[in-house]
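From: lab user (bench 3)
To: helpdesk
Subject: output format question, protein + S-adenosyl-L-homocysteine

Hello, I'm new to running complex predictions and I'm not sure whether the block I got back is the full result or only part of it. Here's what I submitted:
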Amino acid sequence: MWFCWRLTWCRFVMIDSHDVHFSTLRQAMVEQIAFHASLVSGETGKSELADRVMAVMGAVPRHEFVPDELRAFAYMDNPLPIGFGKTISQPFIVALMTDLLELTPDDRVLEIGTGLGYQAAILSKLARTVYTVEIIGELAREAASRLRKQDCTNVEHRIGDGSHGWPAQAPFDKVIVTAAPELIPTALLHQLSAGGRMVIPAGVEEAQQLMLVRKDGEGLTSTQEILRVRFSKLVTPH
Ligand code: SAH
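Helpdesk reply: Thanks, we reran it on our side. This is the complete output you should expect:
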């Protein structure tokens, strides 16, 4: 009896010390993001990202959204493989894209390219509802399970080609695309509300730009190039 109790206690202490370890690494990651933001401020026009975005980056456990064997690397400011030739985005890029959306607590957000759900988890802490679309069924199901485990109850999932958006739930206050098309899909522009913002990487493989699209009150859109980036392609099956 005493032995069993002692084993359980030891396990508890081990889990607890892992959490402390990850939390320390996560704070270091946030500092790296801040440093990276200042390094590219000449291009982005931003030397700092919003405090509430940084606070969420410092709170969401990225190690829960990477394959188990890569948990030790979860807090490096790098993309990591998640299977199927895809990657979880680099933390700095996740933070920058989230910052550019200027989310408010009432926003309904469309995300294209769920992956394992890390960006969706970040969005879920800053917006009312996140609608996320993933073309690879296995990734979508795994993301749904990981997001459930983190109590992200305001995330709705769909498996399919996100280049058509999610017409049944449109319009959206904000749209974020985490895979790169050559041209911005018109369906996504149509599904953006007046006054809305979209952040999307676009262009041919060697020359992608992260773009900020703004739609004004009259429905007119303007685009701004933010930063050279490298994302996997937005797959468009025919
Ligand atoms: N948002 C993820 C990044 C995933 S990488 C994160 O938080 O880390 C980009 C993802 O886009 C991949 O999982 C890929 O399968 C998906 N994707 C590519 N083309 C797509 C499409 N047409 N519709 C939906 N998802 C797509």
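A quick orientation on your result: Residues 42 and 182 are 25 Å apart (CA to CA). Let us know if anything else is unclear.
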